[in-house]
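retry 2 of 3: previous attempt timed out while embedding pyridoxal-5'-phosphate. Reduced batch size to 1 and resubmitted. Inputs unchanged:
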Amino acid sequence: MKEQPPSARKKSLTFFRQNWVEIDKSDFLFNLKKIKESLKKDTKILPVIKANGYGHGGAELAKEAVRAGVYGIGISSVEEGIQYRKAGIKTNLLMLSSVYPCDGLEVAVYWDLIPSLSNLHDIQFLASLAKKLDKRLEFHLKIETGMGRLGVSPQDAYHIIEKIAEMPEIKMSGMFTHFAVSDTNPAYTKNQLDIFNDIAKYAKKLGLKFISHVANTAALMTDKKTHLDMVRPGIGLYGLTPFDRVVSKALKLKPVLSWKARIINLRKVSAGFCVSYGRTFVTNKASIIAVIPVGYADGYSRVLSNKADVLVRGQRCPIAGRITMDMMMIDVTGVKGVSVGDEVVLIGTQGSQTIKAEELAKLQNTINYEITCAISTRVPRIIV
Ligand SMILES: *Cc1c(COP(=O)(O)O)cnc(C)c1O
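retry 2 succeeded.
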């Protein structure tokens, strides 16, 4: 690293702020393999590595998935697609949200990204682009079956599919829908699946050839009828659960992400010592307060002030006082031998203790998805 003087270079530091995320590549590949093994042999798989891989770091994991063999990667945006292409990823990249405005479509096509289309206007736009470029352009059609988000409504779908069948310049290589309650409500999910299957059947009757895909992690784990030609697991790949209860059919997967830091300061204090903004934490006995360089600007929610624990030397230590932008304090009183430079685990395992993303999610009244997605890009992701 050029920025480093020779003395620092010797220690081969790759970052200075002692706050980083470790991504366990072998656990990610283990989860992918477990999911694959739960499918029929010819069922395709589209790992969803959107939003920087749910905060895990997108391009690196996408490369791993491609090496393991997949249909393609599910992504969020044109920007993400360009980033993956520049990183040398050559597989199908399917954009799961729609392209608006259509200027984005032209760029998507240039970078060989597959758009999801949700209305006739965009389909016709793609057809005119195909004529202009004299190239058959591919897309997936999104059907709205009960999520209440994007997709052509079932009432319009039949008519739109008839139109698509008359446009040889474009190729509908896939058709899909997305479930709203596959984690909690099998009856509603079955209804969504039935609506989708009827539409897909009609399209096949018109001679269209395409793959059908509907299953997110919760659906693929709970109902094999949702597997169709391809599944789209996201959260499960990262070893996190889509359920907020114990589900017997859920695959046993391994969390991929650990969030770590090091103690950068220690202070022995007496009773009555105030910690951080607002003085919300006051020691009630002689204590040791440590500082770690993790704050809400790193995506560790300020809501967790005085609520969450971290791990030091295998022991749970509570956060002391308000979390600040770049730092927080923790109460390490009673941790034998605690020292500056000790590794601190915010998410992950240390000794016999584990803090899961789900634990933090519960404390801040959200889901594990948001916990890892929120870890800001300034926190280095280290693949181990
Ligand atoms: C995010 C997403 C998924 C993945 O869902 P998980 O619950 O993370 O498995 C699948 N399909 C679509 C359309 C998505 O947007």
